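Hypothesis: this fold can be encoded by more than one sequence.
Test: take the structure tokens below, design a sequence, compare later.
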């Protein structure tokens, strides 16, 4: 007669247990692939705005007649950020892997100041209003820290979102996903628009 411990031990070899390990392996490969894409995309990032734009998202500096030395120095130490969103089917349900990548865009290290333990945030906006925020309901320690970003060294922040609003209702239609480093000042990516079924 098997003991309770032996029965529990035997249940780990079921197909259900193996499938869970396989799904975990898929996530690792997926996130690794997205990280590699962000690394290759970020190697050419300069942190400078395209011609005709008014501001740079990476530095928060605005276009003016002649930048002073402090503004020029902050542009040299800009942090390039990018957002990638991957749709994944997980057993009949859709999930969205949100990945924020950041690295120094110049040749030198760049440092950003953070006013709390929160380093990043993801936001979903539909019809001009915020419907979901990753940091909502989370608690972060309160300490001013300075985080260093190095050139050609990608820092990745990721979250798997279920496509629901803050109340838990599934969203449909176009949804704009935004990502940002919560530094002072914040460093935001260009939004990505998803068309949810």
């Amino acid at each position: 007669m098997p003991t309770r411990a032996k029965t529990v031990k035997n249940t780990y070899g079921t197909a259900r247990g193996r499938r869970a390990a396989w799904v975990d392996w898929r996530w690792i490969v997926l996130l690794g692939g997205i990280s590699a894409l962000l690394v290759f995309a970020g190697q050419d990032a300069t942190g400078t705005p395209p011609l005709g734009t008014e501001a740079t998202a990476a530095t928060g500096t605005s276009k003016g007649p002649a930048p002073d030395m402090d503004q020029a120095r902050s542009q040299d130490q800009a942090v390039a950020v990018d957002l990638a969103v991957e749709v994944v089917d997980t057993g009949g349900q859709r999930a969205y892997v949100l990945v924020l990548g950041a690295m120094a865009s110049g040749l030198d290290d760049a440092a950003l100041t953070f006013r709390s333990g929160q380093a990043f945030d993801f936001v979903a906006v539909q019809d001009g209003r915020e419907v979901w925020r990753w940091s909502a309901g989370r608690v972060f320690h309160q300490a001013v820290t300075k985080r260093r970003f190095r050139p050609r060294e990608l820092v990745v922040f990721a979250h798997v979102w279920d496509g629901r609003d803050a109340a838990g209702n599934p969203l449909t239609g176009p949804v704009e996903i935004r990502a940002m480093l919560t530094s002072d000042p914040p460093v935001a990516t260009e939004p990505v628009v998803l068309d949810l079924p």
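The longest helix spans residues 15-42. Helices lie at 4-11, 15-42, 69-76.
Hypothesis status: open.
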